[in-house]
Amino acid sequence: MIHLNQLIATLMQVVIENAGAETGALVLLEEDQLTVMAQCSGSRQCDLEKLAVAECATIPVSVIHSVERTSETLVFDDAVSEASFSTDPYIQHQQTRSLLCMPILQQSQLIGILYLENNLSTGVFTSDRLQILKLLMATAAISLENARLYKQLADYAETLERKVEEQTQALQQEIAERQQTEAALRQSEANYRNLLQTANSVIIRYDPQGQIHYINDYGVKLLGYEEHQILGRTLFETIIPDIETSGRDVKPFVRDLLRNPQSYPQGEGENLCRDGRRVWMVWSNQAIFNDQGEVVEILSVGNDTTQRRQAEEALQRSEAKFRNIFENSQVGIYRTRIGDGLILDANQRLANLLGFDSPQEIIGLEHSIDYFVNPSDRQQAHELMKRDGELRSYEAQLRKRDGTVFWGLTSSYMNAADGYVEGVVADISDLKQAEAALQASETKLRTLIEAIPDPLFVLSAEGRFLEIMVLEPNLLWHPFEEMIGQTMPQLGREEADEFLSYIQQVLRTQQILTVEYSAFLNGREAWFSARIAPINHDQVIWLARDITACKRAEAASILEERNRMAREIHDTLAQAFTGILAQVGAANQVLTDDVEATGAHLDLIKELARTGLTEARRSVVALRPQLLEEGSLQSALHRLIAQIRSAAMDITLYYEIEGAVYSLPTEVESNLLRIGQEALTNAIRHANADEIRVELIYDRNQFCLRVKDNGQGFGVGSIPSSEGFGLLGMSERAERIGAQLTIRSQPGQGTEIIVTVDRE
Length: 760
What we know:
Blueprint: H1 4-19, E1 23-30, E2 33-41, E3 44-47, E4 51-52, H2 61-70, E5 74-76, H3 89-94, E6 98-106, E7 109-118, H4 127-162, H5 171-198, E8 202-206, E9 212-215, H6 217-223, H7 227-230, H8 235-238, H9 251-259, E10 266-272, E11 278-289, E12 295-304, H10 306-328, E13 332-337, E14 343-346, H11 348-353, H12 375-388, E15 390-399, E16 405-415, E17 420-427, H13 429-450, E18 456-460, E19 465-469, H14 493-509, E20 513-521, E21 524-534, E22 539-546, H15 548-590, H16 595-623, H17 633-647, E23 652-658, H18 666-685, E24 691-698, E25 702-709, H19 727-736, E26 740-745, E27 751-758
Parallel strand pairs: 23-24
Antiparallel strand pairs: 1-2, 1-7, 2-3, 2-4, 5-6, 6-7, 8-9, 8-12, 10-11, 11-12, 13-14, 13-17, 15-16, 16-17, 18-19, 18-22, 20-21, 21-22, 24-25, 25-27, 26-27
Helix pairs in contact: 1-4, 4-5, 15-16, 17-18, 18-19
């Protein structure tokens, strides 16, 4: 048996829940007049009192009549903003947001109107929901029409009973009509069942003992049962868990629902799937009565809210996490009122910063403006926020409750619409003190640097002058201001490459390097001793001292000493060898005449030779090059290369050092220097090279000297020792210090000399 009111209530409940509506109304056409049949909401039972549309104050009459005229669906995302209906009294009063008004058609004829609204949100009635509603209404139109026919039939039967005696003759005709009506009723039932089966909600019907009589396809799929596995069984045997995950015993609640379904129009709980999964469902319950008013069944419509519950739980966890961060943050967090700076919210750290024990002592009681040492700072911050909407890294002096002053660093955001400012503040007093100490230290350091008489350069990794400090500028560095930003403008290409190799070595090893070099500046040669130190990974300090005068004095002293030695050799060795020659002549004359005189001459010759040998050794030592006695192997080779450059202007010389420089035993460095000297001499005098590259490679366990030229080359092993360009001497020196000598050369392809020696 279909009751029209029951069908309307159930239909509206399903529609409101599936459409996302807050309230709704069903208007049907009765005797060519639109009549409000039901007014429903998601939180209470439907009001089934009939009202004429014009007399109903809970629907926008103009919208209803518009759909009546056009038979077209109206959907507004924000009805109060729709110009065509903004003057409707109901819309104006309710400030209606989301609105849907849909015609209910039966065979293209208007039989009613569905009205839904949601004043909580805009844009609720999406196209997807609209399509579902159209499908539901198409099915519902048949059910509504059949139910109305059934009601008419019931009314007619009642009339028939009153007039049975008067209409006996028409009995057979009425029976035929009744049979037709029953056929229509069966069709309506079928249509209604189809509606239930296609709904996107769980629809279940059970008796007061909890035994399940019906469940739709959606419910079967959601709960994981086959239809025969659940029908005939009770709720307690299937979908009601013994204990919910929260620990709540749900069975007493369900038993009370079975006894008093009218008391539980809605409810939410955890339900059990066949595979053991738990799903959260929101249920709408409707009692079904028999003719005697007894509850014979309960119809429940359920929607899966598991994802919503999970989202809510995730939101709660997020809020708890945020609250934990808020309360335990090491920076002060606050919200203040724009007008007077009243503190609306604060965490423990802010209370501590202002000298209070807890946030409760300042929230709603204290004004943030009172804690600025200079009120103008707060005013400036307020103006910046009004202009930009936010404030980033604003520094100001603040005062604690006890008067202690500290520096605060603030970032904040202004919410002008709601009249408050949110932000964070951190105590940077220690940082400000450190900055002041650093500035004082930098001032002191700059004073010390400026007092250094030698010029100081700050160079980039590419050799570009970044800063120059010259206490007493002279012609050598004038005008030094023009050098800023330039890359060693006063040096030639070779010197620039050599200087760049020094810079790269210092940056690579992060160690101080001391070098000597010469350069032509402003038309004259100058000698410098430089200490190069790393500042960071891409800058060095180059402190240069002019040693030109020392070099000239050294050269003059060497020349004077060599002249003295030349004179001494002339006065000693030359005289001794002259005397030897004279004694040899005398010995030849008396050799046959006087044996004793011959022996005396020979003794004198031996003494003169011994004296000459002693003087020769002393002279050799005195005239020996002093390269290694004045520094390391790398500095000695540098001076040797500098001498060759000045003497051989048509030859390009490259000198590179790779790795962290370390010292080798004196004998090893001396022999390596001689090997390098011999290799350079061969390349210049015999190989006719115009480009020579000298490399020193300092590895952790091994040192390597490499001299490579682009000269004429030769076939290794094909030159006799008498014409071997000193190769035999280099081999002997390498063997003496336990080094490995490698000679690579081909005619026309240059020569490469490689000497490798272990560090230990």
